[in-house]
Amino acid sequence: MASGLLLVGCTSNSDNDGSGSTDAQSAPGSIGIVGDQGKGGDPVEGGTLSFAGYSPVSTLDPAKTQPAGSTGGTEMAAVYDLLVRYDATTEAFEPQLAKSLDANDDATVWTLKLRDGVKFSDGTPLDAEAVVASTNRFNTNRGGNSQAFTAGVKSVEATDASTVTYTMNQSWTEFPSMLAFGHGMIVAAGSDQPDGTFKPIGAGAYTMESLTPGADLVLQAREDYWNGKPNLDTLKFVAIKDDQPKIDALNSGGIQMAFLINDDAVDTAMATLPGYLETVSLGNSIVQINQREGRPGADVRVRKAMQMTIDPTVVDTRAKNGEGMPGTEMFQSWSKWHNDIAPVPLDTDKAKALVDEAKADGFDGKITYFTTQTQSGQATALSIQAMLQPVGIDVTIEYGASVTDVVKRLYVDKDFDISTGSYSIADPAPFTRLYSALNSTSSNNIIGVNDPKMDKILSDVQTAKDDDAKRAALADLQTEVNSTAPFLPLAAGHSFVPWTDNVYGVVPSLDAIMLLDQAWIE
Question: Could you tell me which residues are beta bridge partners of residue 192?
């Protein structure tokens, strides 16, 4: 199946009869369930579902694990649930663990109502005070997206036992997305043990039986889950390196679900398996340029030279067999946020002149490229190395042994000149990831951007009161990225969560976080 044109249908709690069957529609860039699975019978109780994720978790603390579908989001949603989830059918954030979430007229105050009688797995009530305490804990421990949250939210208050009021610093129409990630995973007060250890206590459908960091996680169903006992007795999250072995395990019945991200693997799996497909901007790869003092990328001329030299189509051909969605636009034509600002054209003559200028001022012409030691990672690195050499940039390639090694070097040590990565900007919620990656105060700003103009544009994206205003702000962001080249877009991307055709009742949320409390194996 061509990656640029997808057959996509979407489901929700309300319209999914548990069969996993959907009516497919042709829509480039859509998100939703794909594949005509057919109708299942009545839900079956019992059994174990095995899921091979992208990066195995080392802890179930939402403040210590990036709350995304690729990095523990599905696992933690099973333990904590989500206050709200994204429904691709309604194209809106719908109540999940919460009963309702409503805004005032200018989206400066959001009111969350909780369901009656919900309890954590230790028997304590999930009330408004618990939500406030969990939110404060998450922000204090600098969980994922916490800086965006604290920059936008003035206060979080328990108005009464079942009501939480979020008061914004200014209008924020995209705020519900925060409650579909880590801020929506409510941790019980008893999770923080007296000896300083962490015990995962949530209001979700499952509790932890065992965790071997980096290897496997076993969860057991709760009899007293607020939405009824889950159909499945056990969820088992296992570690399988690389996408093709995951597909092999799906086909052999060794696992029932997986998280896939490589374009060829996604296309292979979609040809035979149902699952949840999510298309994102800046998805499969961007070139991240470290512009901190002392790095070659601190010189904008070096960044601009790379911007005018690296051809995404060449990278796609060499690394992805031409099956990706290459392009230098931040938001391609399929995106809701596509705009008329053209990206910077390729021009190797101008690039060479800029490199020569930089060398005259002390640049030695050498940079280090750090990436994962996968087939696609190596092919991407070699193609970029080959393109930069003729303009006078000598690239040395270094490989990380594992995803964990790459994360440490990029996000903790920030020890790299350039690397490839992903911002994975989903159309329903573009602000959060952009803020995390590019705001000058964000701890996830690994490339060291310190641009007051970009900070102002990001604020405009956050406070936009309608789609037209947000699109205009994102066009301004494209203009600033064209001018300063903090990163280089290479492609939009997909993630795909396939399941075997005997699995039913999976409910997706944003960023490929999957809710499994209604799932069953026939």
Answer: 198
CB 230 within 8 A of CB 518: yes
Q: Give the angle subtended at the CA of 303 by the CAs of 298 and 308, to the nearest 5°.
A: 170
Q: Please give the structure tokens belonging to residue 374.
A: 């996968």
* 8 Å CB contact between 176 and 101: yes
Q: Would you call 317 helix, strand, or coil by DSSP?
A: helix
Asked which of 25-29, 102-106, 264-268, 345-349 is least confident by mean pLDDT, the reply is 25-29
Mean per-residue pLDDT for 260-277? 91
Contact 151, 169 (CB under 8 A): yes
CA pseudo-torsion sign 253, 258, 262, 263:
positive
Question: Of the candidates 244, 212, 241, 254, which has an alpha carbon nearest to the alpha carbon of residue 50?
Answer: 254
Contacts of 342 (CB under 8 A, 6+ apart): none
Question: What pLDDT does 8 receive?
Answer: 29
Averaged pLDDT, 90-107: 96
| Closest to 504 measured CA to CA, from 47, 4, 24 | 47
> What mean pLDDT do residues 103-118 have?
97
Q: How far apart are CA 356 and CA 365, in angstroms?
A: 9
- Label residue 24 by pLDDT band (50, 70, 90): very low
Query: What is the rounded average pLDDT of the residues 281-310?
Result: 95
Confidence of residue 28 (pLDDT cuts 50, 70, 90): low
- Rounded CA separation 378/383 (Å): 9
Asked whether 22 and 30 are in contact (CB, 8 A), the reply is no
Under a CB-based contact definition with an 8 Å cutoff, are residues 427 and 337 in contact?
Answer: yes
Element (H, E) at 148: helix 146-152
Q: Region 3-13: what's the mean pLDDT?
A: 30
| Secondary-structure percent of the chain, ordered helix, strand, coil, rounded to 5 | 30, 25, 45
DSSP 8-state class, residue 44: P
Find the largest Cα–Cα distance for the chain: 73
Higher pLDDT, 316 or 372: 316
Q: Are 247 and 270 in contact (CB under 8 A)?
A: no
Residue in 512, 308, 334 with CA at minimum distance from that of residue 422: 512
The CA distances from residue 467 to 265, 337, 384, 461, 480, in Å, are 34, 8, 36, 10, 20
